[in-house]
Design goal:
75% helix, DUF4870 domain-containing protein, transmembrane, transmembrane helix, mainly alpha, 0% strand
């Protein structure tokens, strides 16, 4: 089967795949809230017959769970180390280190596969995330 046939078969699912990948990228910038919407999309489409849609919904959902968990853990460590102790001192060294750690350790490595997946979803093609896709 050539690429144009694959794209035409995936056309009915393209919007949902693009929405899932977009919510994943949005979750990197604003954790937790986009994850809730992505979870709804995942549970509505997890049993669909389209392998294209299932992969474009399952993989970003797992990646969003991982990135949100890391966000919570990094902020929890900053809070336990004395950051966020008062509303007067929201920009403490601990909060700045937590923000920088989240940017370098989570956003940057998770952004590139998410952008590749979004472009593939827009093209109507399947794509595997480098680590998550191999485990599935």
């Amino acid at each position: 089967m050539d690429q144009s046939q694959t794209q035409s078969q995936n056309a009915p699912y393209k919007g949902r795949a693009i929405a899932a990948e977009s919510l994943y990228l949005l979750n990197l910038l604003f954790p937790i809230i986009p994850l809730a919407f992505l979870t709804v999309i995942y549970f509505r489409n997890r049993t669909t017959s389209s392998e294209y849609l299932r992969s474009h919904v399952l993989q970003p959902w797992i990646a969003a769970l991982i990135s949100t968990t890391l966000f919570i853990l990094i902020n929890l460590v900053a809070w336990l180390m004395g950051g966020y102790s008062s509303m007067d001192n929201l920009v403490s060294i601990h909060s700045l280190v937590a923000l920088e750690a989240y940017t370098l350790l989570v956003i940057l490595p998770f952004l590139v596969p998410g952008l590749f997946a979004l472009t593939k979803a827009m093209s109507g093609l399947a794509w595997r995330y480098p680590l998550i896709g191999r485990l599935l």
